[in-house]
Amino acid sequence: MKFKTVLMMSIVALCSVACSDDDNLPTVADITGNYEGYTLASCAYFQNTCTANEKIVVSENSDGTAMVTFSSASWGEFTIANAQMSENGGVYTLTGNGSTQMGMGGNTSSYECSYTAVISSKDNAQMQFSVAAVMGGLTLDFKTGEAPSDLLLAGTYKGYTDADCAYFQDRYTNDESLKITANGDGTISIKFESASWGTFDVAKATITKNGDEYSITGEGSVAMGMGETTINYDFTMSGTSNAAKDNFSIAFNVPAVMGGLTVTLLPGSAPSGEE
Q1: 177 and 107 share a domain?
Q2: Is the C or the N end of the chain the one with fewer CB within 10 Å?
């Protein structure tokens, strides 16, 4: 009788341990929720185009797989219906295939995409969507957290210039543009080539974030003159931009030219009749 009692207690203990182990196994439920961060887009035509304020949602299916949805104003709608999960040392990996709806002006097409993710926590996750049939192979790399300012502001800024000096005010020129490039150390370089005002080069400008606005400061030299004869002049540069790069003001000030020349690049077209 005593032997049977001991045997039964052993069986109960083993079952309890087994059930407890099952309860502690990692599941998709451990990583469900919203992931907020930014994307870096690369393809055959551009590299590391940064988009801020992106959000990816991971939910659990009834069969234990993961549903991943990503709605991006820049890149379209992505759905991974049945991503497979694995876990190692508290780090979760998701892999799967799905589809994306992409297009321009309301006309969209469906494309196949692949998906991978490495998730340590809600605040430390990396995910990748690859779309082979778009733009020679489009890859979107998502990372949680705030977008790096240098990568976010990199790109081409198009608009018009407003030039002011001691001899004139509000001299407008349409179809102007400048290019910002990330240096890789948190600073940016700026190149502004203007048929009217010369070529402005800033090798290393600094960025400061103020709320939703970014301030840029730097300095450099510009070659100005008439015909083929030019002289290099020092200038300072200051500007502001939002994350979308559609509301900006970037000014170049050349103190030694025309009593102090300031050329400011602004978005859009010059005021009507003023060019």
Answers
A1: no
A2: N
